[in-house]
């Protein structure tokens, strides 16, 4: 019984950490741009396909084996390229909607996500089929007398480190100061010689790269990757950000842990819970927003007309 409880607790923490990496990207982009970038999950899930493709190319063209070190190198390359992809999409598409009504940006980013998924499905070899995704860390360690996956421990530690690094970037660096300045008042930031355009691109790079970390760990957690994983996980990440309050980093983390906890509980307790887990998750989101429309940590904005 204790082993089962510890395993479910570990599943909760791992899923919560992964969802948090996706959710903080949504909150960061909304906090700076005031735009709901609904395709953020789809951008993030480009990373596992890039990493897997890079491994296959290296193994086919160079006399090397697909070792964990090679996989880790390809993952780092994928994180960099996914961050650059986020910047490219901001330049080509999303910047057109900075001052447009929110609904236009929402529809445009939903369409952008569909385009990304279909490109992966048609351009990646056998893109419609699931592909096994290896873990770059294997083995087990003993925690409290129970053997747990070393990958799960690494996933949690790296997720926490990524979130702590993001908070440090936002609160203790010059770039973070500029990001906060632009998010509060773009016109005042311009008067202080801060370029909103440059800050938008830097924000997209950071949010896309940190979302890519979550996507890679989710692929490793599931041991496979599908072109449509971004639909469920992206929607859960967005729901976690909304649950905690869009624009709130702490709220995104709390929302992710709540959703992951309910997800894990339903799968462990409810018969055939894996089929109904999203029903319970979104009922939780609806229930919270009925009583707290701005989310748990969000602030209600009052506009004078």
Distance from N terminus to C terminus (CA atoms, Å) equals 59 Å
How many domains make up the coordinates?
1
CATH architecture: Orthogonal Bundle
The proportion of residues forming helix, as a percent range, comes to over 70%
Q: What structural category arises from helix and sheet content?
A: mainly alpha
CATH topology assignment: ABC transporter involved in vitamin B12 uptake, BtuC
List low-pLDDT spans: none
User: Which strand order does the major sheet show?
Assistant: 1-4
Query: What is the mean predicted local confidence, pLDDT?
Result: 87
Got a strand count? 4
Provide structural commentary.
The chain has 305 residues and is mostly helical. It is 73% helix and 4% strand. It has twelve helices and four strands. The strands form two sheets. The protein has a two-stranded antiparallel ribbon. Strands 2-3 form a two-stranded antiparallel sheet. A hairpin with a 2-residue loop joins strand 2 (140-143) and strand 3 (146-149). The longest helix has 32 residues, at 2-33. The N and C termini lie far apart (59 Å). GO terms for molecular function: L-isoleucine transmembrane transporter activity; L-leucine transmembrane transporter activity; L-phenylalanine transmembrane transporter activity; L-valine transmembrane transporter activity. This is High-affinity branched-chain amino acid transport system permease protein LivH.
How would you describe this structure in keywords?
ABC transporter involved in vitamin B12 uptake, BtuC, mainly alpha, two-stranded antiparallel sheet, 12 helices, two-stranded antiparallel ribbon, 4% strand, 305 residues
């Amino acid at each position: 019984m204790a082993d089962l409880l510890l395993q479910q607790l570990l599943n909760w923490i791992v899923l919560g950490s992964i969802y948090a990496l996706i959710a903080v990207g949504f909150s960061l982009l909304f906090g700076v741009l005031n735009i709901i970038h609904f395709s953020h999950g789809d951008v993030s899930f480009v990373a596992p396909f890039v990493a897997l493709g890079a491994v296959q190319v290296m193994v086919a063209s160079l006399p090397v084996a697909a070792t964990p070190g090679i996989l880790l190198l390809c993952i780092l390359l994928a994180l960099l390229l996914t961050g650059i992809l986020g910047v490219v999409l901001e330049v080509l598409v999303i910047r057109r909607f900075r001052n447009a009504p929110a609904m236009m940006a929402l529809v445009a980013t939903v369409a952008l996500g569909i385009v990304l998924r279909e490109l992966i499905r048609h351009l990646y070899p056998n893109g419609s089929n699931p592909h096994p995704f290896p873990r770059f860390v294997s083995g087990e360690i003993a925690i409290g007398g129970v053997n747990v996956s070393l990958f799960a421990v690494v996933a949690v530690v790296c997720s926490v480190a990524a979130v702590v690094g993001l908070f440090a970037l936002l609160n203790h660096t010059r770039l973070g100061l500029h990001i906060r300045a632009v998010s509060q008042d773009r016109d005042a930031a311009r008067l202080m010689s801060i370029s909103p355009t440059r800050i938008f691109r830097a924000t997209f790079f950071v949010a896309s790269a940190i979302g890519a970390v979550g996507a890679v760990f989710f692929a490793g957690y599931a041991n496979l990757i599908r072109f449509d994983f971004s639909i469920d996980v992206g929607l859960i990440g967005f729901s976690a950000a909304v649950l905690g309050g869009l624009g709130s980093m702490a709220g995104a983390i709390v929302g992710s842990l709540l959703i992951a906890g309910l997800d894990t509980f339903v799968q462990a307790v409810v018969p055939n819970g894996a089929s109904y887990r999203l029903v319970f998750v979104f009922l939780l989101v609806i229930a919270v927003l009925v009583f707290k429309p701005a989310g748990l940590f969000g602030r209600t904005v009052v506009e004078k007309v």
